[in-house]
Specification:
This protein is an alpha/beta fold and 207 residues long. Helices cover 33% and strands 18% of the residues. β1, α1 and β2 form a beta-alpha-beta unit. α1 runs parallel beside α6.
């Protein structure tokens, strides 16, 4: 049995109550729990205990971040969560400082992780799929979804987690296709979580 930690990264706003994010969270919870795995969920917009969140990350074999893209990044609530949890975790629970030493003060920045495991980002955004990866689309100018979200990828790398392929639901405000997005999400989870690494580097099956 493996441990899955789902982070709901939505920040409530009158224009965006978070129902779609929550639906993806519940779908992922059902997927993993249905296979007999322990699942924990944190909603960053609700009060949380930093020490408890560090322990959830330490227990997790898989971390799933479900979040909307807010103004080309993550929500303020998710950024605050990272600021709170990752910073306190630098005392040794999640990382050993910033990786540098007195002997090599300019080397290995960001390379003192304490965790192993896998993370996956599942995103929702108003941009259509065609806005990404196309240099002719002037705004993103060829950026991929993962390039846009590189700061979050680096945050997970900081603590030692390895990426599973990112999922994204596109055009969710102007031209939503929720049922198709759910079907793609289910298929994505099934494809990429046949097995996950555990803390000793062996594999735990999700079949």
């Amino acid at each position: 049995m493996s441990n899955v930690f789902i982070i709901n990264g939505h920040a409530h706003h009158p224009m965006s109550p978070g129902t779609l994010t929550d639906a993806f969270v519940q779908r992922a919870r059902a997927f993993f729990a249905g296979q007999g795995h322990d699942v924990e969920v944190t909603e960053v917009a609700q009060p949380y205990d930093i020490d408890a969140e560090i322990e959830k990350l330490q227990r997790a074999d898989v971390v799933l971040l479900q979040a909307p893209v807010n103004w080309m990044g993550v929500s303020w609530a998710l950024k605050k969560y990272v600021d709170d949890v990752w910073t306190q975790g630098m005392m040794g629970e999640l990382s050993g400082g910033d990786g540098r030493t007195a002997e090599a003060p300019t080397k290995n920045y960001g390379l003192a992780p304490r965790l192993t495991g896998t993370y996956m980002m599942s995103l929702t955004g108003n941009a259509p799929a065609e806005a990404f990866g196309d240099p002719a689309e002037e705004f993103f100018a060829g950026l991929s979804e993962d390039e846009l979200m590189r700061p979050m990828h680096l945050n997970f790398k900081w603590i030692g987690l390895s990426p599973a392929p990112t999922f994204m639901a596109y055009d969710v405000l102007k031209n939503p296709d929720v049922e198709n997005d759910f079907a793609r999400f289910d298929a994505h989870l099934a494809e990429h979580f046949g097995a996950v690494p555990n803390v000793t580097g062996s594999a735990r099956s999700f079949a």
